[in-house]
Amino acid sequence: MIKIYDVYLPFPVSVNTAYGGRKGQKRFKSKAYKAWLADAPKLILPECGCITFPVKVRYTFTMPDKRKRDLSNYIKIVEDYLVSECVLEDDNHTVVNEVSIKTDGVNRGNGKVRIEIYDTQRKEGI
After folding, report:
1. CA-CA distance, 96 to 82, in Å (whole number)?
2. What pLDDT does 78 receive?
3. Is pTM beyond 0.85 here?
4. Quick one: three-class SS letters along 43-104?
5. Could you confirm whether domain 2-119 is CATH 3.60.60.10?
6. Which of 46, 77, 82, 118 can bridge 12 by disulfide, Cβ–Cβ 3.0-4.6 Å?
7. Phi-psi region of 12 (alpha: psi -120 to 50; beta: other; left: phi over 0)
8. Cβ-count burial of 17 within 10 angstroms (0-12 exposed, 13-18 middle, 19+ buried)?
């Protein structure tokens, strides 16, 4: 696999806190989600343009504190941002067909997520 994209983003909000709205109401972005979007950098497109082919996305989370977290709840926010910035055409299984998640410890008050995207169809040296 060949790495085609590598970027750091601020530690995202959980999907559980990203939206407001009660039963029967329309969902809306929470203040915390809007603040995260404002802090997230404008992304540069990959050399290949908006990714439309199958890729593996590797997430490495640097935790902002020692709280226990369900990391799966943070991926949706990051993937939606990658789609909104046209790094990924979509986050469905035809584009993102493999995901890995890991942590690299705690950096108190300075959490972040590293996103590495790999082309699953091309091999090194080809």
Report:
1. 11
2. 97
3. yes
4. CCCCCCCCECCCEEEEEEEEECCCCCCCCHHHHHHHHHHHHHCCCECCCCCCCEEEEEEEEE
5. no
6. 77
7. beta
8. middle
Rounded CA gap, 108 and 92, in Å? 33
Domain ranges, ordered by start, for the chain: 2-119
Contact 53, 119 (CB under 8 A): yes
Classify residue 1 by burial, with Cβ atoms within 10 Å: 0-12, 13-18, 19+: middle
Residue indicated by tokens 């009660």: 22
Q: What is the mean pLDDT of each run of 10 residues along the chain (126 residues)?
A: 95 92 82 96 93 97 96 96 97 96 94 97 66
Side chain identity, residue 6: D
Output phi, psi for 13, to 5 deg. -80, 155
Count Cβ atoms within 10 A of the Cβ of residue 116 and give its class: 0-12 exposed, 13-18 middle, 19 or more buried.
middle
